[in-house]
Write a structure and sequence with these properties.
Distance between the termini of chain A: 10 Å
CATH architecture of chain A: Alpha-Beta Complex
Oligomer: heterodimer
Order of helices and strands of chain A: HHHEHEHEHEHEEHHEHEHHHHEHHEEH
Number of domains of chain A: 1
Strand content of chain A: 5-15%
Largest sheet of chain A: 11 strands, mixed
CATH class of chain A: Alpha Beta
Number of strands of chain B: 0
Largest sheet of chain B: none
Number of helices of chain B: 3
CATH topology of chain A: Amidase signature (AS) enzymes
Structural class of chain B: mainly alpha
CATH superfamily of chain A: Amidase signature (AS) domain
Shape of chain A: globular
Chain lengths: 490, 94
């Protein structure tokens, strides 16, 4: 692995700014790394190497711009997010040839900050899944063990960052899809507060749950990306009319955690968690205590209802959001369609994969006449109770802490036959999306039995990403680092 | 709640999906398991609880009613499966 791709985002950014490194060299280093690792991990759906080099060369000719906070930094973008003139497939056949004529707001902001977009990463189809196995195109492998899943749905982004193919990647998180693959692949993954980052240009899955966020190697790198992509956007009516703090400045000097109270919800630390996961996370909590944090027990009592609540809400919203894929204006149209009915039914049935069809059908059911109150409205009521659990808990602590996943990455194909089992594995990540609060997963060690990365989550109050980033930075520096080269790539 | 293949077929029609019998059978079984699991919400006391449909509860956002051109006809037709250059073309409806 080259010395360049070994660097963190903030380190490479400094070298680029002082011309110790050119934008072309940085892009080339990533492209070389991609060429060396893609046959093993298959994280990328679409690579724009030539365009990226051309952009980088043009930037070098103009010289570093101190006003551009990501000048020359190569990044990847999850394929659910529109990048102008590049394919955006959402890893679905139904969007196989779809090329947007606009950039998502978050992509616009990355480009305006000088980042070099290398291409689009693999994901579960329409972000529906927790392993990236639901991609219609390819299966991505975990760089730590190529027989294991990278997690999902942002598995391509997580694997790419873990394998040092880029310095950061954008992912999306509707029920844990940034945080869980970050945990499985040993990276940092941040889901901002709902409304912190514009959803304009993100192909919608669950509109009240979706957020775009960074996957990076360190908390400081995540702060750098968040500072750029966050902000109010007129084109997203759910985007928060709030100023964006300088998250990087908020992290400066964060070395100890005195004055911080960490809450451990009993429901996240029970016998449902694998021993090696609980051990690694407990050791991280002890390290936080050694840094001066006050540790208190708390409860999030509606946790047992979170999976059911989430899936009713998410599937209902998905069934509505995916009704736009009808073969009329874009996407796959079945050439055999004779009637309008054929057009809709054949295009959708042939274009969508089985998991997507399953969720559309269940979502349609829970919204249908006679069932709306029993399922969807009821779930929305429980959602309020889940959110209230968090608000109550934040009276007693500043940051809530627990494992990201009950277990580490598992073999590709293992969960294939059992959708419900897959849904239940999201137990620790989904409540955050229901509540709309920010959360981050950080690597806290390698499992003693499995040899695979373990992630721990930090949840914060609404719009308080700064506190969880500060905590992650201090804790990350206190814990032993993960090995430089993921074991599967050695 | 027991879902039959026939019920699954009705729902699939609403969702504009055309599923074969084997798929409907499989879906009905999976839906059964998933919906049974979702029914655990029935044991939560939600009397008097306002539904929370979105974490954002601010008032409806409006903008001035002015015309703005943000894209061209070519942009919009760019990904069309069938077009005559002016419109999206679909099978005859009436």
């Amino acid at each position: 692995m080259s010395a360049i791709t070994q660097l963190t985002l903030t380190a490479v950014r400094d070298k680029l700014a002082t011309k110790a490194l050119s934008a072309e060299e940085a892009t080339r280093a990533c492209l070389d790394r991609i060429a060396a690792t893609e046959p093993k991990i298959r994280a990328i759906l679409h690579l724009d190497g030539e365009a990226a080099l051309a952009t980088a060369k043009a930037m070098d000719a103009a010289g570093p711009d101190p006003k551009k906070r990501l000048w020359g930094v190569p990044v990847l973008v999850k394929d659910a997010i529109c990048v102008k003139d590049a394919p955006t497939t959402c890893a679905s056949k139904i969007l196989q040839n779809f090329v947007p004529f606009y950039d998502a707001t978050s992509v616009e902001k990355l480009k305006a900050a000088g980042a070099v977009i290398l291409g689009k990463t693999n994901m579960d189809e329409f972000a529906m899944g927790s392993s990236t196995e639901n991609s219609a195109y390819q299966v991505t492998s975990n760089p730590w063990d190529l027989t294991m899943v990278p997690g999902g749905s942002s598995g391509g982004s997580a694997a790419a960052v873990s394998a040092r193919q880029c310095f950061a990647a954008l992912g999306t998180d509707t029920g844990g899809s940034i945080r869980q693959p970050a945990a499985f692949c040993g990276t940092v993954g941040l889901k901002p507060t709902y409304g912190r980052v514009s959803r304009y240009g993100l192909v919608a899955y669950g509109s009240s749950l979706d957020q775009i966020g960074p996957l990076t190697r360190t908390a400081e790198d995540a702060a750098a990306i968040l500072s750029v992509i966050a902000g109010h956007d007129d084109r997203d009516s759910t985007s928060a009319p709030r100023d964006v703090p300088d998250f990087e400045a908020a992290l400066a000097g964060a070395a100890d955690l005195s004055g911080l109270t960490l809450g451990l919800p009993e429901e996240y630390w029970d016998e449902g968690v694998d021993d090696e996961v609980r051990l690694a996370c407990r050791q991280a909590v002890d390290a936080a205590g050694a840094l001066g944090a006050n540790i208190v027990p708390i409860s999030l009592p509606h946790t047992p209802y979170a999976v059911a609540t989430y899936y009713i809400v998410a599937m209902a919203e998905a069934s509505s959001n995916l009704s736009r894929f009808d073969g009329v204006r874009y996407g796959f149209r079945d050439p055999e369609a004779q009637s309008l009915e054929d057009l809709y039914e054949l295009s959708r049935t042939k274009g969508f994969g089985p998991e997507v069809q399953r969720r559309i059908v269940i979502g349609t059911y829970v919204l249908s006449a006679g069932y709306y109150d029993a399922y969807y409205r009821k779930a929305a009521q429980v959602r309020r109770l889940i959110r209230q659990d968090f608000l109550d808990a934040f009276q007693k602590c500043d940051v809530i802490c627990g494992p990201t996943s009950p277990f580490v990455a598992y073999p590709i194909g293992q969960m294939a036959g059992d959708p419900l089992q897959m849904y239940l594995s999201d137990i620790f990540t989904i409540s955050l999306n229901l509540a709309g609060l920010p959360g981050l997963s950080m690597p806290v060690g390698i499992g003693r039995g499995s040899g695979l990365p373990i992630g721990m989550q930090l949840f914060g109050r609404a719009f308080d990403e700064a506190t969880i980033l500060r905590t992650a930075k201090a804790l990350g520096e206190a814990l032993p680092p993960l090995p430089d080269e993921p074991a599967g790539l050695a | 709640m027991s879902i039959t293949a026939a019920q699954a077929a009705t729902i699939a029609k609403l969702a504009r999906l055309r599923l074969d019998d084997d798929t409907l059978e499989a879906f009905a079984g999976q839906m059964d398991a998933i919906l049974t699991y979702m029914e655990t919400l029935g044991s939560v006391d939600t009397a008097g609880v306002e539904p929370l449909y979105s974490p954002v509860e601010h008032a409806t956002v409006t903008r001035p009613d002015t015309v703005a051109r943000t894209c061209t006809r070519e942009d919009i037709l760019r990904n069309a499966p069938a077009t005559d250059g002016q419109f999206f073309v679909v099978p005859k409806i009436v």
